Amino acid sequence: MMRNNRNYLSSRAKYAGFTLIEFLVASALSLIVIVAAGGTYFMTRQLNANAQKRLDVQQNLRNAASLITRDARNAGSFGCFSTSSVVVKAESEGVGATVGKFPNFTDAERRQLELDPKKNDGFGLKLISQAQAQAAGFDLQGIQFKGNAIAFIYGKGSASVTDNGIPAPKADGSASPYTLGTLTVSDYQNEPDISNTVASQGELVVSSCNDAFGSKAQSGSNNSITFAATQADELTKAQRSSGELGVTKLYASAYVVADVNNVSSLLRYDLNGAGEWQGPQLLAKNVTGITPMFGYVENCQNMSDDVSKHNQETFKFTENLDKADLPAVVRLHVTYRYPEGDQDVDYIINASVRSGSSCSTTLPV
Length: 365
Hints:
alpha+beta, 8-stranded antiparallel sheet, 4-stranded antiparallel sheet
């Protein structure tokens, strides 16, 4: 009897396992754990993806801000020459806009880059509408501006000019007391901005610290650049012999928020070597607007002998460019949205203008 019981117990131990109910309960619990773990995994991935998208938007805006601040800092500068000095010198000598001439470029006018102080908004800054952009040759296929583009105009690259002092006849055949010298290949072959402009016959700016004029780049003999005598006469003999002569490429960049195939984005255009607008370059998507403000210095009394009045200037911000001066600061109020977001987020870019109406460089005489 005891032997039979042992056989029965050993038989049960041999075939012991989960019942069907136990298996179903265990399966249900395992499924719940797997679903919960999977949900957590996919939720974490989605959160990481959204966080990465936000980081991408912020990084793109930081990169755009770096480009804008660089272009704004250079606005109105052409080597030693600064367009802001045109007004400063004219006001100090009381002769209007005849001092510090900066003749227009025919091609530059067509591209909304006229450099006449009496016409150019800000002498290095311009607000360009979509109609003006189209006339200037912007690529606007599938693009609709949301407001105006803001353009920064300045000289890019730098090379020295040698004045050979050889007289040459003017265009009308009359005698010229002197002519501008040549820019030899050793002066500009290592400056890609200058050499590419020469190769493309784009626009150059020749300047001293007091004056400037524009010229189409023309390769002369011995791989040098020569300038017409009539253009050379824009610079006085004293200015030309001062050792301050230089040449830069006429350059500009423009930033605008536009709908690109129904996606609101921040775009950048700039001039190539031939002086033609190229782009657009996509800087950031989901940018919904950009509002420029221009800061001008007021109550600058650094010329006063009373030291207590120094460094007491104030700033006035306005949405309008002053045609008589460059601003000291450009402030861009950018709004954007995160992916899947429904509210605008503010992003402020403050960029100083080196040639602007700064009071810090004004000292008593």
